[in-house]
Design a protein that fits this description.
With about 550 residues, the chain is α+β, with helices and mostly antiparallel strands. The chain contains 18 helices and 19 strands. Strands 13-14-12-11-17-18-19 form a 7-stranded mixed β-sheet, with helices on both faces. α14 links the parallel β17 and β18. α3 packs across α4. The longest helix is centred in the last third of the chain and has 25 residues. About 0% of the residues have low confidence.
Length: about 550
């Protein structure tokens, strides 16, 4: 039945959107296209204005997302050489939490008031809501809110409630105009289908939806009386089963069908099946055919997300969340992560090694023995997502001297991200959630030296995804399920997903040497993790900017 049928997966990333056309019966990727966002990440000044943004702001433009549908999708279909009428479904994924305020009909408020910063979508790495997250965490811990342990004891400044509270308290007029506070993952589905829906993945991980409900009005009012009705702005559509009055859409479900307007954008036929929205990291598990309990997928790019299904529920300190049905229906889905990984390497190369590139620095670093540089670093240059959940922490490099070279620091930074990944894996296993297989996806797979460092530091084999376009392929797999080509995500992943097991294996001698460096990383982690020094430095910086 699936022969000569195709699906489209669209991955909305941090800097660009990518579309891929996939054959339904075997997952072959036949054509792809990329659209670079015109506005990229908005971090300093609002487009077309002189309105400046403060520290730790990161916004995006909804117009860039629509332009991906208008350009990347038809270009990918043309590159694949398939007839549009043979496409049976389209699926999408987004960075998260990337969230925006809209009117009741889905119009982004930034289209109406482009000179108001809080009217724009807040990108996942918008960390300016950290003080609001701190208050949410403190109050939830004091009150013993039952949902807090599901997020490792802390919710993140990156998530819906912290960002929403920031809007209320810094731009109350924008908050009052906000009829919908919606993840970009769900907003783009709304634009494709004309139907508003909320997927269970983003609601659970980023919207604090647990055991059938959001945090209570009483809790929200204790934060700020004006915040009591915030959950009403998380209104949902008609897709899925109602739980305590809230409608959430299951992953792999049919969100709706392509409207006339969306068909004109994409060049696909009206009525094509549209899969329920999803998050880029979580959807990649299907692309790697890693949807069984204990298969941890690390999606390594500008940041890293660690995603793992499990058949058991546990409280893992510092995890980003555990959500029932959050990766595949019927299992608990765990998430952890590192706020900056590839971003760290790019920052160092661009700022401190002008004239060098990643390939040259990698080649020089690879020539060293483990520990030869005499350095150890903390991978907190974008804050710490797991296991400390504190985006006011910052990077640390210890051991530099007048003999330190750029490649020394570059290697130490690579190692620091591997140490951070090991901290996450060990935290899961200490909590009784075993990691049976470590699977790597994402752009950093291209760096073979980095992959070997991870295998050595983790002391375990690394499996690797068999696609350069994991999120887009995963979205296409979900589209196949939504279109009825497969009965569930597991079956579709088995037929269309791909990975190579044990592609990198640890070297015992290097692993032993890394154990010594990891012990020093742990000492630094515990010493600076209380935030006393790093928070003070950030406060001084923020005061200087004001």
């Amino acid at each position: 039945m699936n022969a000569n049928k195709y699906v489209v997966g669209v991955d909305f990333g941090t800097l660009s959107g990518r579309a891929v056309v996939v054959r339904v019966n075997d997952g072959a990727e036949l054509g792809s296209a990329v659209h670079e966002y015109t506005h990229r990440v908005i971090e300093t000044t609002l487009p077309g204005t002189d309105v400046g943004l403060g520290p730790d702001w990161a916004l995006q433009s909804p117009q860039d997302w629509i332009d991906v549908l208008r350009t990347a999708v038809p270009e990918a279909v043309a590159a694949a050489g398939v007839a549009p009428e043979d496409v049976i479904g389209i699926g999408t994924d987004f960075t998260a939490c990337t969230v925006l305020p809209t009117t009741a009909d889905g119009t982004p408020l930034c289209f109406e008031t482009p000179a108001q910063p809080h009217a724009w979508p807040k990108l996942w790495k918008h960390h300016a809501a950290q003080p609001h997250a701190d208050r949410i965490n403190e109050l939830a811990a004091t009150r013993g809110e039952s949902w807090l342990p599901r997020y490792g004891g802390k919710i993140s400044s990156e998530w819906e409630f912290a960002k929403g509270l920031q809007v209320l308290e810094e731009a109350p007029e924008v908050y009052a105009r906000t009829e919908r506070w919606i993840e970009a993952a769900d907003w783009i589905i709304w634009q494709l289908t004309g139907v508003e829906s909320r997927n269970i993945c983003t609601a659970g991980y980023k919207g604090i939806f647990q055991d059938g409900d959001y945090p209570s009005e009483d809790f929200l009012a204790a934060l700020n009386p004006g915040f009591a009705g915030f959950a009403a702005k998380l209104a949902t559509g008609t897709v899925g089963d109602k739980v305590n009055g809230t409608t959430l859409a299951p992953l792999g479900g049919l969100a709706g069908r392509l409207t006339v307007r969306a068909a004109e954008w994409t060049g696909l036929p009206e009525g094509v099946a549209v899969a329920v929205g999803n998050v880029d990291a979580h959807v990649t598990s299907a692309a790697a055919d890693a949807v069984a309990p204990g298969q941890m997928v690390a999606i390594m790019g500008t940041s890293t997300c660690h995603i793992m299904p499990s058949d058991q529920l546990a409280e893992v300190p510092g995890m980003c969340g555990v959500v029932r049905d959050g990766i595949v229906p019927g299992l608990w889905g765990y998430e952890a992560g590192q706020s900056a990984v590839g971003d760290i390497f790019a920052w160092f190369t661009d700022t401190f090694a002008p004239g060098s590139d990643h390939e040259r620095l990698t080649a020089l670093a690879e020539q060293q023995a483990v520990g030869q540089h005499g350095l150890v670093a903390l991978d907190w240059f974008g804050g710490n997502r797991s296991v400390l959940v504190d985006h006011n922490l910052s990077g640390v490099i210890v051991g530099q001297s007048l003999a330190t070279k750029p490649e020394d620091v570059y290697r130490a930074l690579i190692e620091s991200t591997a140490f951070g990944a090991r901290m996450i894996v060990e935290t899961f296993e200490k909590a009784g959630v075993p990691v049976e297989e470590f699977v790597v996806a994402g752009g950093l797979l291209k760096n073979r030296f980095l992959m070997q460092v991870y295998a050595d530091v983790l002391r375990r084999p690394l499996s690797v995804i068999g696609s350069d376009q994991g999120p887009a392929l995963g979205s296409a797999i979900h589209a196949a399920v939504a279109a009825g080509a497969y009965p569930g995500i597991e079956q579709a992943a088995a037929a269309m997903g791909k990975r190579t097991e044990a592609a990198y294996v640890p070297d015992e001698a290097r692993a032993d040497a890394y154990d010594r460096l990891y012990a020093e990383y742990q000492r630094l982690h515990d010493f600076f993790g209380d935030g006393k020094l790093l928070h003070t430095l950030r406060a001084i910086r923020n005061e200087a900017h004001s």
